[in-house]
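Dear support,

We are seeing what looks like truncated structure output for some complexes. This example has two components. We would appreciate it if you could run it in full and send us the complete token output so we can diff it against ours.
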Amino acid sequence: MHVSGDGRPDPDALLRAAAQEGRGRFKVFLGAAPGVGKTFEMLSEGAARKRDGVDVVVGVVETHGRAETEALTRGHEIMSRRAIAYEGRTLREMDLDAILERAPRLVLVDELAHTNAPGSRHPKRYQDVEELLSAGIDVYSTVNIQHVESLNDVVASFTRVRVRETVPDSVLEMAEIEVVDIPPDELIERLRAGKVYLPHEATRALSHFFSKSNLSALRELALRRAAQAVDARMLDDVRALGLGGTWAGTDRIVVAINELPGADALVRAAKRVADGLRGPWTAVFIETPRAAHFSDMQHQRVAAAMTLATQLGAAVATVPATDVVEGIQNFLVDARATQLVMGKSRRSRWFEFLHGSVVDRLIRDTPGVTVHVLPVYTEQADRERGRRRPAHWGTPAGYAITTALVAGVTVIASALFHVLNLGNVGLLYLLPVMAAASLYGLRTGLFAGIASSLAYNFFFLPPVGTLSISNPENVISVVVLLGIAVATSQLTSRVRAQADLAAASARTNATLAGFLRQIAGVNDIDVAAQMICDDVRGLLDVQVVLLVPGVGTSLEILAASDASYHLGTMDTAAATWALDTGMAAGKGSGTLAASEWLFQPLKAGGRVLGVLGVAKDSTANPVRADQLPLLSSLLDQSALVLERLRLEVEMRDVETVRTRDRLRAALLSSVSHDLRTPLTAVIAAAAQLHHGAPPELIGTIESEAARLNRFVANLLDMARVEAGALKLKIEATDLEEAVTGAAHDARRALEGHALRLDVPPGLPLVRADPQLLHHCLLNLLDNAGRYGDPGTEIVIEGRNRFGELRLAVMDHGPGLPTGREKEVFETFRRLEGSDRAIGGTGLGLAIVKAFAEAMGMAVEAANRDDGVGATFTLVFPSGLIVRDPAPEGLT
Amino acid sequence: MPAKVLVVDDEPAIRRLLRNTLIRAGYTVIEAGDGRQALHQAATEHPTAVLLDLGLPDRDGLTLIPLLRTHGDAVILVVSARDAVDEKVTALDLGADDFVSKPFDTDELLARLRVALRHHGSSETTKKIVRHGDISIDLDRRVVCRGDEELHLTRKEHDVLAVLARHIGRVVTHERVLAAAWGGEEEPRVEYLRIVIRNLRQKLEHPGPVGSVIANELGVGYRLRSDA
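Here is the complete output from our reference environment:
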């Protein structure tokens, strides 16, 4: 790679380049309008490639009965289509699986913007193409300019024909684009000659659509789009090579999404701005307390706009804030944005007078940011206004209590009327008004205001007993009562909304924090998976399953929130798709939406570790749009946890293998040493006996053979420990008996030493496996005999101390290296300073430790207090000590 | 006429070793390399004793024990490299007279064989008085003496010592001792047995080393040492 100066390759561009490796090449024949000859061009080029020896097939081609086009298909291998029954008709769609299986080098796929019949794998043909490309198959395809997502609005604005089938810009950005261009006049000529098949959508506004001015405009758009694609490719190359320089990249674009119709148009506009400025862009939704009262329609609109933004290549964010302007401003600062795209909603002058225009405030208070303001659709928005917010009428109880309060005040005021003046009575009526407004909201507050003013008027304002007001000044009192009701209710509802919002976000944060804290300590992947399922269920009130790749291509269910979940074929297909592609699939997503479940990939470290499926019993989308940020945080965290556990397992595996290798090497060296040494002695001694050698050699044979036997016993014991095949037969055991038995069996190893048994017969019995205990003692005695200086005493001392029973074997010798006493219990460990010639494998003490721990005892190694040797102690905790049996059993 | 011993072992080297040892000790020896041969030899040669290896090529040696028991009255001494305590107990329960673990001490093997043959024909000694060194145990009168001095034993100590004495020289499993001494009581417990044995040792062995009169067979049972 050529890197000059301090230009560093742009990692994103490199990643894109890397992603292209192994993928098929993608070429799109872009036309300005139907009839320009895209299909013809595609087939011709396909034929040319075929002549070059390339393996070309036709995936799907619509010839619309045109003879020239038909003739061109004849030389090609045409894949048969898949029949899909839909509402009594049979639709014939491209057979994606057949093509994948056929695996040609190049496939021709007409009409990129086509919408597949329901029940197909993907709703859109461009998604099929995407899969073909991923499989490494080259694809040629065709599309008209009005189907390009970001130009959809622009085209509709001058042709007055809106097409529903669109192709995301990101798809076109992957492609090499060839514009199929004929002059408008020629196209109109072809149209007149009946050579153009007209799509259904266009017939309506046919005459208008094919006007010369429209065709010119479309042609310009097509050419510009192609130029842009070339530009983008060049930029990618430049970035990948690190030839940076001064290309524009300083602009960051933010688009503020709202819940109004036309939010998608905002996104497309932002995309155009971003493309024009070649800057990264982000779609942000400011979640104010108002969002809690959104209708489903409004939630969906926001979610759709966000999804569209993602498809068009934007980053998305949802930011909670109490005020839209503040939220946007903070986000602009955080994102270091230079451009803001937002919609201007049609609000009444009155509303703007009261609340201030969001746009005006933003433009005024946000220096350094260019603000693009787009009008949003109004006709739908106006229609919706009436039913946008369900009126908050309050509760009957609220009205009843308010009425009672007003009545109560009236009674009290009547009783006190002789000491109060009229104005003070008016003040008294403020109490029910404020109470009702703050407790039950605006309408009840207004009701209280009206009721209070009526009561005040009727009972106190002269002329008393009528609703007429004689003194005009008293009108003010009535107006004030009503005004107070409005102001109080507004104030309290805002405070309450803020508190709700704060509580909601605190809840979310607390949940996330709790989830993380809980799961941080988990070391078992099954436990973690179950925890994830349960938590997601608890938070979102959905059924949850967690799937991971199983053996081969199958999926394995790691955990589920409910035992009674159901995964059908369609669901499994969606899960597999999500796992394979790392993209969401299933209900509410763009892929396999017929599934009952929505599957989201768990991605970490650039790989998909599993998929999380959520489902809800109702037919609604499993996850509401406003819950998506929470879900995605949970998914991210879950993925990280799974990744951590996976890495830990991997590390453990590596560590295990390493340890095993080390042990194997140590075993081989020690086996060859410890088996051969006594065998050599035995063979040599036996040979000497042939020649009538002195009889003391018989002793050599005996002791060496005993040593061999001891070693083999240890190997067997160790094998049993390693295989986990230790079967304990715990019974009450007399330590004195155990010690004398061991001393007897170890007598050969103890030759040359004096053995002193200091085990008082009054010691309590202990629970132990007699056989294992015997082996422990044998090894400890063997060790003492080997490392104790010749002629010295070996002591076995049993003591009952502080509720524990301690059985110590003490030798008289060099002792253990200070600070490293514990290491003697490691397998094959012989501490430095211990002479190799002494023999022994380092197995013995490891067996002592393994056996003792299996029986619930502890072992300790230390130097003697008097510093003349080592002490090894078996510690029987109080739980292993048998209380003296009832004397009745003994007599 | 010298006692005839059948050696059952699939290893020729072990058979040769046992043959040499036994012939030197004055026995007649016949051999078998697998279970089938062993049964054939037992049926035709009527050996007085069988030294039986449990790891045979054609069948588990344990299954031979009941067959040998029904086809004759030979003493069965199990000689096995297998370490499992359960198997020793099973062998004894199936009717083996004793067991010796490989690798064995030939002197010990011969001693065990001698003891087993001495009590040949009856599973329990018929003697009224059993002796070990200067200790005499009068089974009928329930009196235990060291020299002329009578030792005072509790009832349980008597019961335990009596069952060991009736099988003197041979191992008696824990279950059998418990059944004999605590048989009528529910849930006999090994810890009682341990304490009783400890007390018996105090009285019988002192001041000698632990195990000099009552030997412990690890995990299997106890044996009252014979003077053999």
